[in-house]
Amino acid sequence: MKKISLLLLLLLLPLCIRAQDRLKSGPVFDGSVIPKDRMIETYVKGGSIKDYGLTLFRSVRFEADDAEFQKISSLVLADVSAAFNKETEIEKGRLRCALMSFSPAKKNGEFLCFQSRTEADGSCSVILVYMQGNTTLAELKKIFSKTSSK
Fold first, then answer.
1. Burial class (CB within 10 angstroms; exposed 0-12, middle 13-18, buried 19+) of 121
2. What's the rounded mean pLDDT across residues 107-134?
3. In this model, does residue 96 exceed pLDDT 80?
4. What percentage of the chain's residues is helix, strand, coil (to nearest 5)?
5. In this structure, is residue 69 part of a structural domain?
6. What does residue 131 show for φ and ψ, rounded to 5 degrees?
């Protein structure tokens, strides 16, 4: 029985890792828009994020030129249009922030967060985060507002 459980876990793991591929912004995570060697990627799964109601946390951070930023923004905005719950912030005609969830249920939810900042040299710093878990967008906002104020 333990062998069957382990085999099922190993077979399902790639599905969890690639879940964000269903999103229009999925190509950003796999290096199709920004080369992987220009990204800082964080992938966390397991006990260290359980306290936040999450089962998966994956983020990419990078600098983008204007054309890259426009491409990424259009992908994220396509995800926004498909999201169940969403918030966006546009500043000077550019997408600054987007938070979204793709399910009304708290169980096994999917979340995408986007944040950008224009640097002095005109480049744009971008963070894109994909999360899965048994939480809500409102609960995630509370958690992130607490951790960012520390």
1. exposed
2. 90
3. yes
4. 40, 35, 25
5. yes
6. -135, 150
Structural domains of the chain, count: 1
> Span 95-108, mean pLDDT?
86
Strand partners, 126: 62, 116
Is residue 10 in some structural domain? no
Q: Is 135 helix (H, G, I), strand (E, B) or coil?
A: coil
**Burial group, residue 10, by CB count within 10 angstroms (0-12, 13-18, 19+):** exposed
Decide: helix, strand or coil at residue 4. Answer: helix
DSSP 102: S
Length of the chain, please?
150
Residue 7 lies in a domain: no
CA–CA separation, 47 and 44 (whole Å): 9
Q: What is the pLDDT of residues 60-91, one digit of tens each?
A: 999 999 999 999 999 999 999 999 999 999 99
Print the domain residue range for 118: 19-148
Separation of alpha carbons 83 and 63, rounded Å = 26
User: Distance between CA atoms of 31 and 37, rounded to whole angstroms?
Assistant: 9
Q: Does any domain span residue 78? A: yes
pLDDT given for residue 33 in this prediction: 94
| Residue located via tokens 């922030």 | 97
